[in-house]
Amino acid sequence: MSPVEIGSYALGGLILLIMIGQPIGIAMLAVSFAGVAFIRNETVAVRMMAQVANDSLEEYLFAVVPLFVLMGLLVTVSGVGRDTFDVFQRLLRRVVAGLGMATVFANAVFASITGISIASATVFSRIAVPEMRRHGYTNRFATGVVAGSSVLGMLIPPSLLMIVYAVLAEQSVGRMFLAGVGPGLLLSALFCVTILILALTRPRFVFESTDSAPEDAPIGLAEIATKAVPILSLMALVLGGLYGGFLNPTEAGAAGAFGALVIALLRRSLDRRTFWALLVETGQITVSVLFLILAATFFSRMLALSGVPQSLAQVFLSGGIGPYGFLILYLALIIALGCLIDSISIMLIVLPIALPIAQAAGFDMIWFGVMTVIAVEIGLLTPPFGLSVYTIKSAMNDDSLRVGEIFAGAVPFVLAMIAALAILIVFPPIATWLARI
Q1: Where is it mainly found (predicted)?
Q2: How many CB atoms lie within 10 A of CB 209?
Q3: pTM to 2 decimals?
Q4: Beta carbons within 8 Å of 179's beta carbon, 6+ residues apart
């Protein structure tokens, strides 16, 4: 067999192993080892695996993963999410469907200091949904807003998916973070426009009743300032240090984790048992991410050795569809995969094949990464997998709330994300201008 045929069989074997329930990382390691062994020999396969384990994990950059994860968990525990929502709820209380917009803005700010969509979905399903329900919003709309806006956590920096993409594509993490700012703001604006359109054209989708809920006790400017100080301080520390050039991504993660720890201690929301549980959870998340990166790196090298990506690039780019035809097929494939498997796994499986084709097509790799992250995040809202949807269902602990309602509520936000992809295809500088400064 030729190397291309072996690589193709390895790719088919990976899909088969995933379908029968084999863990993604184990499946990628197995087919990669077998592929290299058949292309060369077992000795080369063993040496390549050892080299990949060393090369892919020894980078100083990888310290950013546990630091940002720990920062996100500490921020969640300290109640910063609730304060963020309270501030925007007060500022937007007189706007039509203002609580929905407050949830979007609060999620955007919360995302800028956590970087994990699931954390946003968990926090705001417990904070924003009960408030919106109390003010006469439907279950479908309230949970849909939380599900939709939670995806901002993986787009607005710092973002775990941006880090994974930067590693696999050999791009700067700092530039990837900068590239997420414009699209993150664009998506936030599109979400707010979507909410306004729904409120004006389909009020029954948004409002359960026109009766106004009891007025909340007014929040004074002093209280708003008190609630906003921790959020703004942490944003200034992490994003100001990162974008100002004072800190690299790893140092920004360390500063953010320390700042989040100080906030949690000052608020007395962290005891020894809780802190230990957070450290254990941080370790578990970090190990799983790094193991997957190791497996994906080995898989990428096996494919490069086989010549499969180069052959696919020739087929796509010399055929009738052209570079943008490939891009549309690629985005459609990622969205379809999002219905079945989780975000990081999609990137680890698809990117080793797609990146060489994207480079051959002449695409800006930073822009291509932003497009990839948005398409991957759509999978968090689409059935049957829809991880954000199931996270909200679990966090709400409400037997009367059906998963189908949450999926239905998330549909308008899926459409808004597809619109964002279309806008970014037409206007790439939205994603690249800040990263190129």
Answers
A1: membrane
A2: 10
A3: 0.76
A4: 162, 366, 367, 369, 370, 431, 432, 434, 435
**Token pair of 12 as six digits:** 């088919």
Q: What are phi and psi of 216, to 5 degrees?
A: -75, 155
* pLDDT of the residue at 339: 72
CA distance 61 to 166: 10
CA nearest to 369, candidates 64, 161, 151: 161
Least confident of 18-27, 55-64, 342-351: 55-64
